[in-house]
Amino acid sequence: MHAEMVPIALIQTFCTSDPAENMAKACSKIREAAAQGARIICLQELFITRYFCQTEDYESFNHAEPVPGPSTLVMQELARELQVVLVASLFETRARGLYHNTAVVIDADGSYLGKYRKMHIPDDPGFYEKFYFTPGDLGYKVFKTRYATIGVLICWDQWYPEAARLTALKGAEILFYPTAIGWATSELSAEVRRAQQEAWITIQKSHAIANGVFVAAVNRVGTEDELEFWGNSFVCDPFGQIIEEAAHQHETTLHATCDRSRMAFYRSHWPFLRDRRIETYSELQKRYLDE
After folding, report:
1. Residues 6+ apart with CB under 8 A from 257
2. Burial of 61 (0-12, 13-18, 19+ CB in 10 A)
3. C-alpha–C-alpha distance, residues 172 and 216, integer Å
4. What is the CA radius of gyration of the chain?
């Protein structure tokens, strides 16, 4: 395969209350994805546990670990063996009482390339993440892997065009979004459910278009307490066209190939980066523009 063609895989799974079982499942599915040709593989947000942020529970802090730490080492050994790049979302303990929602990136030789700490932390019914996570302080990052230069943003980050823009401006060719998003089980309206899911897809497709990059979003599935995760992991090209997408209710390893050479085509035909008026954007640093 030509070097510009990058086969990727997104692993969309159910999670149980047993972290060891979830880790074993993830490793098994990584092996399967690599055997089917994937070169960059991304796991869903907080793949080792159920989504514990639905409640404020001090016991959940027991799931946190150093990054790099034990789970990072597992990913490194697997990446080295399979010659794949891995993106893994972990619950990081940084110091006593200080935690982050963090994604690690491991290169295909098993080397630890670094981590991204989730910048935007939600605090909504069913998503009480501010109780657990300190906002990231590493900035927006890119990782130059063996197969492509990638950016990683996490779940709530995916609603912010500024995050995608800054990551793309640093050279990301593919934006990966490990995610845990779903419907409240009490929300029975099919119309509301469809609107929420379509908004989630639309905002991410817009990041691809505005920045001329590939976007790969991986979500979990299954019902956990009061949330029904809607899956629908997908990959879209720099024109916002969906290349591959998963169903909303099944475990899936979603495979897609990103042709990086197409980025130049899209960016030259729709030259948004060329025509940016950067000298007019200083007010973006304000919370709100009061009259």
Report:
1. 5, 6, 7, 8, 243
2. middle
3. 12
4. 18
144-160: b (≥16 Cβ within 10 Å) or e: ebebbebbbbbbbbbee
Give just the sign of the alpha carbon dihedral 159, 199, 228, 236. Answer: negative
Burial of 190 (C-beta count, 10 Å sphere; 0-12/13-18/19+):
exposed
SS3 22: helix
Q: Sign of the C-alpha dihedral, residues 173, 195, 45, 229?
A: negative
Specify the long-range contacts of residues 128-133, CB closer than 8 Å, at least 24 apart.
128/53, 128/54, 128/55, 128/56, 129/53, 129/101, 129/156, 131/53, 131/56, 132/52, 132/53, 132/60, 132/61, 132/91, 132/99, 132/101, 133/99, 133/100, 133/101
Cα distance between residue 180 and residue 220, in whole Å: 6
Fold of 5-285: Nitrilase/N-carbamoyl-D-aminoacid amidohydrolase (3.60.110)
Hey, where are the domains in the chain?
5-285
Q: Of the candidates 206, 204, 208, 198, which has an alpha carbon nearest to the alpha carbon of residue 174? A: 208
pLDDT tens digits for range 156-197: 999 999 999 999 999 999 999 999 999 999 988 999 999 999
Distance CA(131)–CA(53), nearest Å, equals: 8
Which residue's structure tokens are 């998963």? 246
**Cα–Cα dist 229/246, whole Å:** 13
Q: pTM of this prediction?
A: 0.97
The set of catalytic residues is 45, 118, 155
Residue 282 phi/psi, 5-degree rounding, is -60, -30
What SS3 class is residue 216?
A: strand
User: For position 97, what pLDDT does the model report?
Assistant: 95
